[in-house]
Amino acid sequence: MSRQVILSVEALDPVLTGVGRYVWELVQRIPRAPSIGRVRFLRNGEWIADPAKLLVDPSPIERARWHRILRKKTKPQRQWMERQLARASVCHGPNFFLPDIAETGIITVHDLSVFRFPETHPAERREEFDQRFEDSLRRAAHVITVSETARKDVIDFTGIDPARVSAVYQGVGAAFRPRMAEELLPVLSRMGLIPGGYGLCVSTIEPRKRVAELVRAWRMLPAGLRVLRPLVLAGSSGWLSDSIFEEIAQGEREGWLRYIRYVEEGDLPFLYAGAALFVYPSIYEGFGLPPVEAMASGVPTVVSDASCLPEVTAGAALLAKPEDVEGFSGLLQKALLDESWRAAARDQGLEVAGRYSWDRCVRETAALYAKVR
């Protein structure tokens, strides 16, 4: 029998984060899963007609017909109808929290950075977790994490029964693939880049991503190599990033660093595929989608030897300790110049990235909906 689903879509926004991309893939694919009936979308108590429009402009919200029907009811009638609908559906909170109307359901916990690194999150984010996370965990029939590392972290931190937690890996989109130089040139030339002519890091600029350490390590490379392979940083600013941007600005003044705050979603696969090297020195992730996208693009990759990144890259990436800046710089030089390693890393990276599929992610997610009674 097919299941009705209520899917929370608060993470959808014109600028997608990693969580936002995960939610968007679920929005597109869950309604097509064989075991799934009708899917409704909920955002901060509003029933959404077309989640795709949230990627363009989240306001004004185009409300679903169901929402308009409910608005005509008294508040007690509306609350009763929503609770009845929730009881008849599988409620999935793919961004940590269950909807308030849900007595039970499934939540996806991407990582525990707000607890492990609270100083890197704004106060309102910490307060939201203090108010909602424990309650969502208590109500959830099952918890999805996005890696085995994250699964173990959630079990250790919360004491939840391991049988209630499953790891479901994220996927990588078909747009992330190797590309020939002539295909890359029209997009990269708009950014002032050339195919194979830069190192790349796609990341929010914040302390746990260890971007400052990457900038310092790149500065230690031989001057000629820095000119030949400048570092490109792409990503929005996060919490406590002022000092990091001072180092970025210095690198820009010296001419070996480019900072691109925002990359259009359609341009991102080209930016990846044109890189000579991808570096992701974050010390704490739930899955770490950027290095998987880089490997799928045929780009040799360096990641930190921390959190889930060794698990997710599965031997295809060089592992670095970002705090050892001198050693990190030496690894970067090897990754840029050692053609034997680079060729092997491309092949291994493509093989590993090929294991991650959004279709598989959705299939396994839909199977877990059966655990909700």
From TrEMBL:
Ranges of residues in domain Glycosyl transferase family: 200-348
Keywords: Transferase
GO MF assignments: glycosyltransferase activity
Glycosyltransferase subfamily 4-like N-terminal domain residues: 18-172
InterPro entries linked to this entry: Glyco_trans_1, Glyco_trans_4-like_N
GO BP, sorted A to Z: lipopolysaccharide biosynthetic process
One Pfam family here: Glyco_transf_4
Gene3D superfamilies: Glycogen Phosphorylase B (3.40.50.2000)
Entry protein name: Uncharacterized protein
Originating organism: Sphingobium ummariense RL-3
